[in-house]
Write a structure and sequence with these properties.
This protein is an alpha/beta fold. A hairpin with a 4-residue loop joins strand 7 and strand 8.
Length: 164
């Protein structure tokens, strides 16, 4: 394959040369997956099994710089872009058809400031990650009851917890 064809934000398609794609993917500390790569199907799968979309490219980001590179690449080429945090959204908005999907699952660190009773969670952190980090300091989080739900989605308006 000499070119990669990706969906654009206006519903069209953009051809990306192999050299441009290589320049982009070599910037990433994480992994770039194409549809025929091992791990692609697992990476595009979300909680709702009825969602069966196929991104043209998946970036499994390992650093914040990876995310920035992905957003810039998508902007430069007007690509359709989706972001997968926890992958629990019922509507499956984390997975785009034909575009670039940013997978944050490797960015799942949670840091708790016990004195301030405040936690900072990366975009791929799950409620389980947050609960474990909080409990290590004798704290609890009143958000959600399903450990495999993403903190981002819970924070933005979903999930009633046991302590709510």
């Amino acid at each position: 394959m000499r070119e990669l064809q990706l969906a654009t934000i206006d519903g069209g398609e953009r051809r990306i040369s192999r050299s441009r794609l290589s320049n982009f993917t070599t910037q990433l500390r994480g992994q770039a997956l194409l549809p025929r790569d091992p791990g692609y199907d697992a990476a595009r799968t979300v909680w709702n099994a009825m969602v069966d979309k196929h991104p043209g490219l998946i970036a499994r980001c390992a650093t914040t710089s990876d995310v920035v590179a992905c957003v810039n690449f998508a902007k430069e080429h007007d690509l359709l872009l989706s972001v997968r945090g926890g992958g629990h959204n019922y509507a499956g908005k984390a997975v785009c058809e034909g575009g670039l999907m940013i997978d944050l699952s490797r960015l799942n660190q949670v840091v708790v400031d016990a004195d301030a009773k405040r936690a900072r969670a990366q975009g791929g952190a799950l409620l389980h990650d947050l609960d474990v980090a909080a409990q290590a300091h004798g704290l609890a989080v009143p958000a959600g009851v399903v450990g495999h739900t993403g903190v981002g989605g819970l924070t933005l308006g979903g999930g009633m917890g046991w302590l709510t």
